Amino acid sequence: MTIDLSTYALSDEELDLAGAVRDFADKVVAPVSYEADRTKTLPMDVVAQMGELGLFGIPFPEDHGGQGGDYFALCLAIEALARVDQSIAITLEAGVSLGAMPIYRFGSAEQQAELLPPLLAGEALAGFGLTEPEAGSDAGATRTTARLDGDEWVINGAKQFITNSGTPITRFVTVTAVTGEADGRKEISTIIVPNGTRGFTVEAAYDKVGWHASDTHPLTFSDARVPAANLLGERGRGFAGFLHILDEGRIAIAALATGAAEGCLDDAVDYAGKRTVFGEPLSSRQNVQFVLARMQSRVHTARLAWHQAARLRDAGKPYKTEAAIAKLVASEAAMDNARDATQIFGGNGFMNEYSVARHYRDSKILEIGEGTSEVQLLVIARALGVA
């Protein structure tokens, strides 16, 4: 570990958690990462062990089967995993932020009692269907529809880029759909669709540039029927609820990106110290030293940014702008560090067996998913009153 986390004013409990997950990442996740990436397979045994560690239940109350922690603690775990494998880290992030959190935030007592326990135990996963072919950053352009027919919702449409939607333990997806109009605007609601529902198809997995071991599919709905009671939260409040979930998720993605940036730094420092060029270690060259120094500066800045946003969120204070800043800064740090680390590795950096090559492919999505960098800039500009 290149950076000492004890310098970040963490509590003893937080340091213990970060240390435990980093140890798990190094001993359990890292050894299987290359093969999982090569075969484009999510290692379900690793997911099961994450469940046994309680990682999926970190930010939820104990009376729901959670660990009684906070969002900051969850982000510490995500960061620790992302150092060695972004696919595993996003599986946890999406499993909590997009799978379980909407049920916890907006679900009825009956929905929570039925759906949360297996999600928080890591025994089940769930996806969140928002993005569509014509509705990405402009989520209000949703075309998927749901109409009431007696005591059932009839859903038609398509979703894309949905994480954790087709794993062996995926139980359901939560989808946004147009359920009517209000004041001339689309009324967007959120509906729970169990896997196996007739008319609901999880299409073949994507052939992605990166995050190869993360489970990601397009979804289609053709007269898919679910009970009216599967409405999640208040009718017409689905889009507003999603925006709340997205703000939280940006903090988690920032933590993931910080972990990726640190993983690149760790590997680059180690390689530069061992690699001999013209009889001297690569790290003896000042230009390489300066590159490594900039890499560490990016990790430090990114970590401070997501720490502040997470602390504000857990304190119940406004954090939307800080989350956008953290997401922007950290995703750029991950991409920049991946590029610099790959350059330091030279030809080896182009080989997928080295983690820096996987980070190079994986990190680009961090500037796109959970709101593009341009969306983050717009959020920040609006806070300044200039947009």
TrEMBL record:
<comment type="similarity">
    <text>Belongs to the acyl-CoA dehydrogenase family.</text>
</comment>
<dbReference type="Pfam" id="PF02770">
    <property type="entry name" value="Acyl-CoA_dh_M"/>
</dbReference>
<feature type="domain" description="Acyl-CoA dehydrogenase/oxidase C-terminal">
    <location>
        <begin position="236"/>
        <end position="384"/>
    </location>
</feature>
<dbReference type="InterPro" id="IPR006089">
    <property type="entry name" value="Acyl-CoA_DH_CS"/>
</dbReference>
<feature type="domain" description="Acyl-CoA oxidase/dehydrogenase middle">
    <location>
        <begin position="128"/>
        <end position="223"/>
    </location>
</feature>
<protein>
    <submittedName>
        <fullName>Acyl-CoA dehydrogenase</fullName>
    </submittedName>
</protein>
<dbReference type="GO" id="GO:0003995">
    <property type="term" value="F:acyl-CoA dehydrogenase activity"/>
</dbReference>
<dbReference type="Pfam" id="PF02771">
    <property type="entry name" value="Acyl-CoA_dh_N"/>
</dbReference>
<keyword id="KW-0285">Flavoprotein</keyword>
<dbReference type="InterPro" id="IPR009100">
    <property type="entry name" value="AcylCoA_DH/oxidase_NM_dom_sf"/>
</dbReference>
<dbReference type="InterPro" id="IPR037069">
    <property type="entry name" value="AcylCoA_DH/ox_N_sf"/>
</dbReference>
<dbReference type="Pfam" id="PF00441">
    <property type="entry name" value="Acyl-CoA_dh_1"/>
</dbReference>
<dbReference type="InterPro" id="IPR046373">
    <property type="entry name" value="Acyl-CoA_Oxase/DH_mid-dom_sf"/>
</dbReference>
<feature type="domain" description="Acyl-CoA dehydrogenase/oxidase N-terminal">
    <location>
        <begin position="11"/>
        <end position="123"/>
    </location>
</feature>
<keyword id="KW-0560">Oxidoreductase</keyword>
<dbReference type="InterPro" id="IPR006091">
    <property type="entry name" value="Acyl-CoA_Oxase/DH_mid-dom"/>
</dbReference>
<dbReference type="GO" id="GO:0050660">
    <property type="term" value="F:flavin adenine dinucleotide binding"/>
</dbReference>
<dbReference type="InterPro" id="IPR036250">
    <property type="entry name" value="AcylCo_DH-like_C"/>
</dbReference>
<keyword id="KW-0274">FAD</keyword>
<dbReference type="InterPro" id="IPR009075">
    <property type="entry name" value="AcylCo_DH/oxidase_C"/>
</dbReference>
<dbReference type="InterPro" id="IPR013786">
    <property type="entry name" value="AcylCoA_DH/ox_N"/>
</dbReference>
